[in-house]
Amino acid sequence: MNIKQLYTSCLSEATYYISSKGEAAIIDPLRETNPYLNLLKSDKSCLKYIFLTHFHADFVSGHVDLAEATGAKIICGPTATADFDFHQGRDGENFKLGNLEIKLIHTPGHTLESICLLLFDKSNKEHCLFSGDTVFIGDVGRPDLAVTEHLSKEDLARLLFRSIHAKILPLPDNIIIYPNHGKGSACGKNMSDNTFDTLSSQKKINYALDSKLTEEEFVEKVLEGLPNPPQYFEKNAQMNKRVNKNVSEVISKGLTPLTITQFLRYSSCEDILLLDVRSAKKFADGHIPGSIFIGLEGPFAPLVGALIQDITQKIILISPKGRELEAITRLSRVGYDNVIGYIEEATKYWIKKGFKLEGLNSIKASSKILLQTARFIDVREKKKYEDSHAKNSQNIPIKYITNNDLNPNIKYYIYCNKGYHSTIAISVLKKLGITNLVNIIGGFEEMQKSHIPIYHKECSCAECNCKKFAQLN
């Protein structure tokens, strides 16, 4: 028995590879197929099944391309409908894989077609549960993504409660839970850093697996504090039900090097977005006017999905040398397939042509200006903001920065934890016409070392005035 968890940190996503006696199954593949084909070759196995635990909303899967390349059968849940050929699994249906067996368990709640997959070893003993987005480590899948005119988030939460209590909690305590996502994913709100655990452990520490919770209590807890899903989620879910352009075509098209002449011509087109994927520092030091920054150094793909509203947007990449393939691949994972080319060392050529670069207006956290009447925008996640933040700050998490009521006539000082997200925020806001912005160098980490008044939720210090500040907030 061979089980591999293939974890992609940018998406906080886990794909699973299982093989036995020359037969293999892949659960929830990412869009690019080559890594799986290479794995099959090295493992000397033939792909028999491709399981989709549901139609994912946070990435585009490569199940159709992978099935065409291998002849494997795509398996979906009992209520699934899609434009491609697949086997609609039944609740309790078993699938033979070498000397292993995989049992499909229908667990509606996160979505109606959601399934979990229970793996039996060669002794026919329950070994592990591939729980999809039904159960995470520390959390469960949010039940507000598959809402319809006739199905509310409360209805889905009730279905999730019943799935967990009827199908998950009765399983043997010692089985391993392998979820589809970890901390950082927007598919849940309380996920752990751990990417697997035992069911017995989760029963003790996962609030949603508390057997003492009533259905009403479960619904209330699961729905409490859920942020709005990123705008690209619905688009990705629909793409996963369709036959999309082959990812190799998408990548081949995007890997078109542009001359400076071509770049200048394209950069003047209103329907083309210049996406700078270099480091935050390089963007701050000098960038092409009108470009936005989302750097490869961070959670690139989810931020692209959250901030670039049109998934069909034509994009030109301003890329670090040798990283254009990585950028195009990561864009394709969330369905942004319309990269028309890339340019390396764009700023150097821009200057040679006699044009000026723009920089970011920045300030050190130690500056006394920030002790006066500075208006702060904190672009960190809500929970981090609630734990501690600067006085006179407003929280607009980076994924929702395009939805704001900021006054273009007011100067705002933008901060995140270290500077990556604040640089993104400023570039996006400038594109929206809000330009009176200042980036705080080093972010909140440096602000805490300065004399800027900071509110700490748990602080009991009598000297730092936190209690008084807490009352003001």
Characterization of this structure:
By secondary structure, the chain is an alpha/beta fold. It has three domains: 2-235, Ribonuclease Z/Hydroxyacylglutathione hydrolase-like (Metallo-beta-lactamase, Chain A); 245-352, 3-Layer(aba) Sandwich (Oxidized Rhodanese, domain 1); 362-472, Rhodanese-like domain (Oxidized Rhodanese, domain 1, 3-Layer(aba) Sandwich), CATH 3.40.250. Helix content is 28%, strand content 23%. The protein has 16 helices and 25 strands. A six-stranded mixed sheet has the order 1-2-3-4-5-6, covered by helices on one side. Strand 7 and strand 8 form a beta hairpin. The longest helix is centred in the middle third of the chain and has 16 residues, at 153-168. The termini are far apart.
- According to DSSP, the number of beta strands is 25
By helix and strand content, what is the structural category? Answer: alpha/beta
Assigned CATH architecture of the largest domain: 4-Layer Sandwich
Unreliable sequence segments: 467-473
Distance between the termini: 56 Å
| Helical fraction | 25-40%
Number of helices, counting only DSSP H or I runs of 4 residues or more: 16
Radius of gyration: 24 Å
What is the overall shape?
globular
Percent of residues in beta strands: 15-25%
CATH topology term of the largest domain: Metallo-beta-lactamase, Chain A
Q: Could you describe the largest sheet, including whether it forms a barrel?
A: 6 strands, mixed
Provide the residue-averaged pLDDT: 95
The CATH first-level class of the largest domain comes to: Alpha Beta
CATH superfamily of the largest domain: Ribonuclease Z/Hydroxyacylglutathione hydrolase-like
Number of domains: 3
The order of strands across the largest sheet is 1-2-3-4-5-6
